[in-house]
Write a structure and sequence with these properties.
Rossmann fold; alpha/beta; 234 residues; single chain
Length: 234
């Protein structure tokens, strides 16, 4: 009964109180979905993978694509988030899982059960959660494994979204780029120490940025810590 009450409260606060069912031109935090939609223009039946999806509508970089008949895989460590996706985006594959470099069980750090800032990095948890945090053990697997087990196994990725609070590089390294060939990638890039020390070169020094450069991607758009990379044709 307590679990049902928690889910009801979550649905109320996440859906009805903010009135996010009202039509919008953008659902992303900084308008990323407009950039993504314009990049693919009139492409229909596209395929996305959203890692750290959190919410099916609010702040989502993939909901606008879903409305345009795209379908894909949404992954989050929060089971309540996945239940929301199962409720409102039934045509997607929604998975409760952490993404890592191997199949394992890892520590998740969080302040409360419903929170955008869950992280598997204890260092980032100490930065984000100044008043303390909780931890629990969660299941983890690679992106390759998730894709291989899905009906999308032999399909290339049109759009890959990563918002997993400091674990983005590990997730990227768990993907076979030669097989899945993501055309567009949106990823959060945080270099906390260098940003706070006002280093102007923090981006080019960032391991995630350097990894994507080596994979022949370049920055298409950015705002604050959100970056969209597109594949360079060779």
């Amino acid at each position: 009964m307590k679990q049902i009450k928690n889910i009801f409260q979550y649905f109320y606060h996440q859906y009805f109180k903010p009135k996010i069912f009202l039509p919008k031109s953008s659902y992303s935090m900084y308008g990323e979905d407009i950039i993504i939609s314009n990049f693919f223009k009139n492409k229909s039946n596209g395929f996305y993978v959203d890692v750290g999806c959190y919410h099916p509508l609010e702040g989502s970089n993939t909901y606008l694509l879903y409305k345009k008949k795209w379908r894909g895989i949404n992954i989050d460590v929060n089971p309540l988030s996945v239940e929301l996706f199962d409720f409102s985006r039934k045509d997607d594959l929604n998975i409760n899982l952490a993404i890592s470099d191997k199949k394992s069980k890892i520590k998740l750090y969080f302040r409360k059960k419903i929170n955008m800032l869950n992280t598997v990095s204890k260092k980032l948890a100490k930065i984000h959660f100044l008043n303390g945090f909780q931890e629990k053990t969660v299941k983890a697997d690679t992106l390759n494994s998730v894709l291989k087990k899905s009906k999308f196994n032999n399909q290339s990725i049109d759009f890959l979204n990563l918002d997993i609070e400091g674990n983005e590089l590990i997730a990227l390294k768990s993907l076979d780029f030669k097989k899945y060939k993501p055309k567009l990638i949106c990823v959060e890039i945080h270099n906390h120490e260098e940003m706070y020390n006002h280093r102007s070169d923090y981006l080019v020094r960032n391991p995630t940025y350097k990894f994507l450069m080596k994979k022949n991607y370049k920055v298409l758009w950015s705002k604050k810590f959100s970056y969209i990379f597109k594949k360079i044709k060779i």
